[in-house]
Amino acid sequence: MTVKRIAFLGSGKMLMEIIKIVRFSNEFKICGVILHSDLIGRNSSPNSTRNVNAIPMCKTLEKNKIFYEDMNEIKTLKHSKILQQNLDIVIVCGWYSLLPRDIFNQTNVFGLHASLLPKNAGWAPLVWSILNGEEKTGITLFRIDEGVDTGPIIAQKEVRISNKDNIYRLQTKIIKATKIMMKDFLDDFSRNSWTEISQEKSKRTLNARRYPTDGKIGSEMSSRTIYNFVRAQSKPYPGAFFEYKNINLYVEKVKIKNSKFSQKNSGKIIIKGINVYLGSSDGWVKITKFRYKKQKFNLIKSFYRDFFQEEKGR
Description:
Blueprint: E1 4-10, H1 13-23, E2 28-35, E3 39-40, E4 49-50, H2 58-63, E5 68-70, H3 71-74, E6 89-93, H4 101-106, E7 108-113, E8 121-122, H5 125-131, E9 136-143, E10 153-160, H6 167-190, E11 206-207, H7 223-232, E12 240-244, E13 247-257, E14 269-272, E15 275-279, E16 284-290, H8 293-313
Parallel strand pairs: 1-2, 1-6, 2-5, 6-7, 8-11
Antiparallel strand pairs: 3-4, 7-9, 9-10, 12-13, 13-16, 14-15, 15-16
């Protein structure tokens, strides 16, 4: 059996796990890895954001004698020495821009997307799946073409979303499912026995890009919406937040509460002892964990200081 020449484009823990699988295979030779920039978008753009899923990979690749190129250095894929080789397959995982047509026209280029395509194509699929209160998602391997996650599907694996899953736990489930799926696919590819199925365009949904400012908790949100909103953007993502005295306070975990407080205080804060409650459109949520402990301390201190000053003034 001929050894297949493989290269990778991307970033993140999922990519590293796939590289580990291939590294121990006798059926593939790793010709190189092109690492995505730590920023999503152009460095000069005000809309560029940090890639929260990026992990340090250079030392690991060097240790395992795997040649790599950094997009921060080569600037464009046209300058890639890796892609100029005679490759049998390229795996794309954690890449945040469309690939030039000449790359996927010259060899087999497959991408990984963390949803059950054609649903939740586009940006931040796992975040959107939790925001939308979905009960399942998954991982899809598909052939790269000129569209945004539009190519034929090669393999999929479903993952259930628990009501207790935050974004980190869901990502962990997805990585586990991806490893199983990719082991099976690589076996098929080495035997030239994989299949491809066109996506059903009528079932396609496309998600918009999200920015850190999109994490603001709206006063019109229901308790359930806030609960999903917070767990979808917990670490490593920028986080959900609410404003208090023009300061953004970041929330890591909440619990829906059936309280005796007034039901007409959307967006309001109530503090009982050291417990903080945030009003929703249909009730309250208890903030059980702030991202920064100091913010909780300062909030409680400010709240009681204002309360006692008001009592003095009466």
